[in-house]
């Protein structure tokens, strides 16, 4: 196993890097929406990628920012490196360390610092701040890449340039920059990649500019059009690498051709091959013979086996053994040379010691200098003592070697004398004496030559023997091959078949006919060979002419006639071409960027809350441009408002309250809203003049699920008086929201359980009962089940929203959603800490949907719409569009609800009161600083018109009754998940009474800020 990993380590690393890329490329062609299963091969996601205008805009923004920041960063970084190289080493080291601080510093710290600086400077967040931020972190990368190359420049080159009369600019552009070119290219590639891929710094400093990383991060669900983009990006990189390697290989080939022409080996092998073929044709013509191949398979098998053995012997590598011997040879020679240098080193050290002693006598008054000289003399004395000991040992070794060699000679003579004294010695005795005498003779040679010299000679001999061994073996095989070649490729007469027929002719007439036929065939063959000979000669002449032309090109025969001064175009055509292509590309990119940033409306929404195709549809219908941006939390949206103003936003209910109290939202004019109307070419159908604003507001309220705001009226009649009373009864919460916002999506928080036998038994053991459909009885379910699951080491996946997690703890302790005071938050903090910091608990953003859809969990706390979508993906329902398949599935399910996962909304009684769940809503609002009020209302009406499409795309419950009912109808996506798709407050016999519970989050000002701070401190302690 150890040997396997040792030999396959590089392959394992490469596989670890490239297998995910290959998987991404593969699933970019999957017609399904997830990586959970393969559906069909399709290019649909590539089509959707090119039609996704917000994503395309983010890519254009990334490219524009990356190009501009890279160019500026490379110029600044290169000039800074050249400037630092001219300073003292101490100064250079200090500034270099300061410049590298951004590389060590955390990106989030850099991002926040830059944001604060831009705020203090009063800059408007956008393209300028984004480019400045990217330049700030790119310059250090350029500096650390260029500086090492700059240090390797030979200073004598620069001095020589000045001596020859070059000015500073000429030295910079003619000497320094050409040497730095490889480092500058590398720095450019690194800076571009870092800028294009950056997320954190762009997220904090981009304002209205969304680059590709920010777009992908804020997407609620990673759809395969991102895989399509990744595949295209990989293809571009591969093509760039192939192009670069092609240019490099072309240059290398040019150098090789020049070298071959110089040593006269250019196209020699081709000429030899052609001449060999020509000679064979001439022989065929002169001897009237041709080469034929044998039909004996056994001969061919032996022939190709020999060729295989020759190939194997030729490819056999002795590099390791040869390199070992060469290294041994190098060490021995170094050791021998070192011993030879001892004498000269001793002489130099003694002379230097004498000079230092003289200097010491002359500088006794200068105490510091005398101390330095004394230290130097002491070091030299140690060195001299060492050298003398080594020389003495070497000389003594030679004396000992002489005596030892004499002693070995005596032993050899003694053995030789004993051998002569033997009477009729046996072969074994003779072999023993011969071996003994040979060993002593080798030993004597070793002693006389010196151990190192002898070993060196033996290594050299082994090296020669090893190099010749394989060559002789190949020659032997080639000799055998030639013999077989003569057998398998035998030469015979061109007219052999006619000669045979003539010999067996049974009549003179037939013989004459065959002779005529033989003569005609011979003439035809001869003519054919002569033509082939002529063609070969012409081709050889062409090759030779090409060789001469190439030779003349690189090495002119008359150099005096060649002008060495090139014209401007000849000297600069490459630079002009690159500059033209680069300028044209940048101009096109700039135009694309400007065109995509001339917009009429800025919309901020949650990731994947709208089909990108709808953005394009609205733009086309109204002939406008939309700057569509995404965010991942209400707090992120709120923080963005410090750096940029949006026109239309989709915050959650409690954030609407907060923003309205701060005066950030415009009160809605209900007369401009036409929820019941239709959109025709971007224009709303006119409404009757008698329609008043209040009646219009009531119409909208009655068409929306206002129960999410706790303002549902049980009376069948819906009049002004009951509506006002209802608002007063519920602390005017619904009124404050409907005054500024209209619902976009809504839902509630549920607990989802992976129905493994172990999890089902765990529920039953903790008192949770299942109904006849296999689902949880809400009256037996408590939020405390999450704490129990975490204690049992179950995989618990939580929605990472701070208010949701604290709400779960608040339900267990206080049986309410909202925590109204800091004291209440402190009371549940320990319980939240216990849950969040458990090792088996994971905090998830929008990736929670994918985790549940793939079944990588035991218990999950998530929104009902996300749970329904994850269920649909898990069961494949989200991708079914075949009517026959749908019919079969409905027939098999009949009246039973088909849900893979167990789910429930806690409604258990705790401390004499029942628990509940958070009922949330995300709402469309218009900013007070909107740039186009009329277009904002058009966009709101467009969203209402497309409400069914929106809920089908995002998987979140629509606030429109009609759209919601359509999604759970027989043909709807969530037909199998009605009770999960619909929030608990609109389900029959659910046991929830919104009038008695505070089901929706409310804004509590600093109390909410205190809750978020506590949550962040808890998460920071999670390991």
Automatic annotation (TrEMBL):
Is the keyword Cell membrane in the record? yes
InterPro entries according to UniProt: Bact_Polyamine_Transport (IPR051789), MetI-like (IPR000515), MetI-like_sf (IPR035906), MMSYN1_0195-like (IPR050022), Sperm_putr-bd (IPR001188)
**One cellular-component annotation, GO:** plasma membrane
- State the compartments where it is located: Cell membrane
Query: Alphabetically, which GO biological process terms does the record hold?
Result: polyamine transport; transmembrane transport
What are the ABC transmembrane type-1 domain coordinates in residue numbering? 59-244
In the bilayer, the protein is annotated as:
Multi-pass membrane protein
Which residues, if any, are the signal sequence?
none
- Residues annotated as transmembrane: 9-29, 59-84, 96-119, 125-146, 225-247, 575-595
Q: Which domain of life is it from?
A: Bacteria
**Molecular functions per Gene Ontology:** polyamine binding
Question: Is the keyword Transmembrane in the record?
Answer: yes
Gene3D superfamilies annotated for this entry? MetI-like, Periplasmic binding protein-like II
Which ranges form a coiled coil? 339-397
The entry's family comment says: Belongs to the binding-protein-dependent transport system permease family. CysTW subfamily.
Q: What is this protein called?
A: Spermidine/putrescine ABC transporter permease
Q: Taxonomically, what lineage is the organism? A: Bacteria, Bacillati, Mycoplasmatota, Mollicutes, Entomoplasmatales
